[in-house]
Structure prediction request, 545 residues.
Amino acid sequence: MISLNSIDVGYKTPLLSVNLSLELGNLYALVGKNGSGKTTLLQSIIGMIPAIHGEIILDEKSIHSMSNLERAQKIAFVETKFMGINYLTGFEYVAIGRTPYTNALGRLSDRDKMQIAKSLEIVGITHLSGKHTTRMSDGERQLLQVARALAQETPYILMDEPTAFLDYSNKRNLIEKLKKIAHEEQKCILLSCHDLEICLENNLPLLIVSESEKKIEFRNNASKEEILQLAFS
Amino acid sequence: MMIVHVLSGQISLNFSDIVSAFNTYDATNTNHIIFFEFRIPRMTMSILSGSALAVSGMLMQTLFNNPLAGPYVLGINSGASLIVALTLLTGIPFFTSDFGLISGALFGALLFGSIILFFSFYIRSHISLLLIGLMISSFVGAIITTLESMSAAEQLKSFTFWSFGSLQQTTLNQLPLIITGCFIGFLGSLLLSKPLNAMVLGETSAKSLGIHIRSFRIWIIAITALLTGTITAFCGPIAFVGLAIPNLTRMIFQTQNHQYLLLGNLLIGGIFMLTCDTIIQLVEPYFVLPINAFTSLIGAPFVVYIVLKKLI
Prediction:
């Protein structure tokens, strides 16, 4: 469980105050205006930016008391876009997700290889393992990022606008897959997203950033009107 | 290639000379002396300089996530040059000793490595960072020119020869020092191969994978400074090897795994410099080709080729 008890996030002045907890087995969507603090919140949870006030607790341990390695085994982060890297294949890319578990020279053990294969299979992209990342489509690369996060074997996965550069069918495909993964693999996945319709279609629990009140409202069954009212008025 | 290299040169040696030099060394045999005192150090330096500069280039390119980075472009060579210029041109005896020269070049490389690292904390854009590297290089170049204009003819001559780059100034008893420096650098790079592999994905991802970015950066700069500084102190500023070879290695090995890339850079860097120096030795009877000029002659068109290939 990720517990955010009266946390203030931001750089110098508090941008948002947050009071909620996120449970395993769920896919949460963080919605709100551009610049309202979504990315800042995500970066605070992964420990990149220290919270101004309060402590972020992962499974009863404050993230700031964790070492980099300990944190990397608890929480995976997926960036908005992965551009592909010359000569890097799908398998090699997903293998980088094993970094927190490999030895000093980064050699993959049998268990590492098994976990990589399993991650590719869960996402349904085993066929991409030999393909070069620069030759993949945006949709394929986004699924590959999910596989990398799964290979990291963390209970928590955070994603910064993973749907931003995808077409409509790829967006739906990604969200549906993530929802299934969160449920079946008992992961807690939090993503920021601007695609309200797709979030509502999938009945995702929503974290709505209310910019005017500088806080986050949690809604499990919200209507579109209510969300628009909260986030964009 | 190594054999071809030691056999070529102004005074011809043949293969039997080498064999007999190893089996029954004769201190009065000129050919034996040439082989051990000149050819062996020169061949070793060719391989080491090529390998060390290629590995430095690989480290810089991954650290800055930029295929056009390299110790020369980012001004790390210039840093070493500046300190060497200060020491050679002022002619203080301590600094012109081996130890003084190498520690001066190391200090210069480390200092300018840290400067570019400092800028990289604030500058996200790769182009700006390269621009700053180039500016540092030309700024340092200007200081060196000023120093040159103020110094005596004898000192000016020794510095100018140094700046041409040369693989033949090294003597047999300096080799252990250079080999040790390079070996530590190569070993350090091997130990950093895991964070280097993660760094390919960019800083945020590397950090979320548990890599301690700050200490990683410092290690990379320290190793690059060690490798570049050692080579620059003895061979002068050799351009383009550090930029071109890592790209060539990636193209040939088709991988982003830094353990293979390290091996590839060691091999290809060594072979490249050995080939360059063999050609230089072959044309030596007709005209003198400084190694720095020669690597640039080959390297510059190659870099243009990389840039064009990126654009297309």
